[in-house]
Amino acid sequence: MGRMSKGRQASGRRGYGAGRASCESGANRCLACGYEWFPRSSSRVKSCPRCRSTAWDKEFHKAVCSRCGHEWLTYDERPERCPSCRSRVWDAEVLDVFCRRCGARWKDPVKKGAAVICPVCGPATTVTVMRRTKGGSGSDGVRLTAEMLSAVRAIPGDVGKADYLVSSGLSRFQAEIIVRLERGEKAVHISKETGISLEDVLAVSVPYEDLCSDVSRDSSKRSDE
After folding, report:
1. How many structural domains comprise the chain?
2. What is the pTM of this model?
3. Which of 86, 97, 151, 214 has the greatest CB tally within 10 Å of its CB?
4. Which domain holds residue 85?
5. In this structure, are 12 and 53 located in the same domain?
């Protein structure tokens, strides 16, 4: 009886994610390069004999970076970074942008090589691209709510306000930022005074300002009624 070949080229269309990792004939199929081979044991093979991929039996899909336009194939449901520009927000069509000069906020595609221009100040300014966050959340996902904001405003003293926010689930630095915002301080000033990065301050101040607007709007509606 002749010796069985260690492997043979996959029949049909080759490509990423083409077909299943195991064939009806009992052969393994690499979903990365399309190569087929007969395993010598029933245990999972660590890598494809041809392309050496350790993810040979995982389905691949195409990802496209919204920042730089790079396209790549991955088996992760959502890769952490774009392998080209290293952006963590590669899959967001638009990002929140903050102007450090005038405080304007707007949404921008933030494409690689394209200038981000403030609609108020123009191109001669410095902007901060805010990373995606849960918006005013603590480490356990607690959000600043209208009820919490109302309670904070009824508590005398900054220490009491901060302690209440921390006991409600927010982090200590988030509580400090909110207390300072309640005093009327701006994000840039808070960053300079506390040493907290402007990006992290904005991650708290932006949803805080949105919540204040919602509370004010609801209050106006009740007054009209």
Report:
1. 4
2. 0.43
3. 97
4. 60-90
5. yes
